[in-house]
């Protein structure tokens, strides 16, 4: 038995990294070495499981990212749970994914929660993808409409400004063309033919 213990102990130690070898090389028997390693890795496994469970519980989708990207993140967490031996039923996974949808998906979330027919995980993911594609199309369409209205308003404003400039230049041009005072009334800025007062010749005729 003693001859078995020694080579077995060396076999285990040779499979360790240098750091772990230095820590566990003082073990007197293969059994003691194995128990020490088992305790270490069981403790680490328990810590890893708690960490993954924490990630699962804390995970919540946000509106600032695409839902499909976050679905992939959540699937990775589910995969890690399964890898650690924590199996979740498909119906539980579906319910959890629905519950973790972002705030702006509240109406669709309620719709999914009240569906009587049970859905599989793949079916849910397909529905989420279709819904997101539709939402993005609607948002893009709405954005284009807003941009079109803004462009139309800008064009109208520019047209109005140009008209005002043309009118102003025309008035200014007419004012420059009129030099001296009106021959009819003696006042500036208009010609005798545009004068509002009775023409001098007409006044003389009426007096005669």
UniProtKB/TrEMBL annotation:
<keyword id="KW-0479">Metal-binding</keyword>
<dbReference type="GO" id="GO:0008270">
    <property type="term" value="F:zinc ion binding"/>
</dbReference>
<keyword id="KW-0863">Zinc-finger</keyword>
<feature type="domain" description="CCHC-type">
    <location>
        <begin position="182"/>
        <end position="196"/>
    </location>
</feature>
<dbReference type="Pfam" id="PF14223">
    <property type="entry name" value="Retrotran_gag_2"/>
</dbReference>
<protein>
    <recommendedName>
        <fullName>CCHC-type domain-containing protein</fullName>
    </recommendedName>
</protein>
<dbReference type="InterPro" id="IPR036875">
    <property type="entry name" value="Znf_CCHC_sf"/>
</dbReference>
<dbReference type="InterPro" id="IPR001878">
    <property type="entry name" value="Znf_CCHC"/>
</dbReference>
<keyword id="KW-0862">Zinc</keyword>
<dbReference type="GO" id="GO:0003676">
    <property type="term" value="F:nucleic acid binding"/>
</dbReference>
<dbReference type="Pfam" id="PF00098">
    <property type="entry name" value="zf-CCHC"/>
</dbReference>
């Amino acid at each position: 038995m003693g001859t078995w213990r020694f080579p077995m102990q060396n076999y285990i130690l040779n499979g360790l990294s240098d750091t772990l070898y230095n820590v566990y090389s003082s073990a007197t028997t293969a059994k003691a070495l194995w128990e020490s390693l088992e305790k270490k890795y069981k403790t680490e496994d328990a810590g890893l499981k708690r960490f993954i469970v924490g990630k699962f519980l804390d995970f919540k989708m946000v509106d600032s990212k695409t839902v499909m990207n976050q679905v992939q993140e959540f699937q990775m967490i589910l995969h890690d749970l399964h890898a650690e031996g924590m199996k979740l039923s498909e119906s539980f996974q579906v319910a959890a994914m629905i519950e973790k949808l972002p705030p702006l998906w509240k109406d669709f979330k309620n719709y999914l929660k009240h569906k009587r027919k049970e859905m599989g995980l793949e079916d849910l993911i397909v529905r989420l993808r279709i819904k997101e594609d539709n939402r993005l199309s609607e948002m893009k369409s709405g954005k284009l409409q807003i941009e079109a209205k803004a462009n139309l308003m800008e064009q109208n404003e520019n047209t109005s400004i140009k008209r005002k400039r043309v009118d102003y230049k025309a008035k200014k041009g007419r004012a420059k063309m009129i030099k001296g005072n009106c021959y009819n009334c003696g006042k500036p800025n208009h010609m005798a033919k545009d004068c509002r007062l009775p023409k001098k010749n007409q006044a003389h005729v009426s007096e005669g």
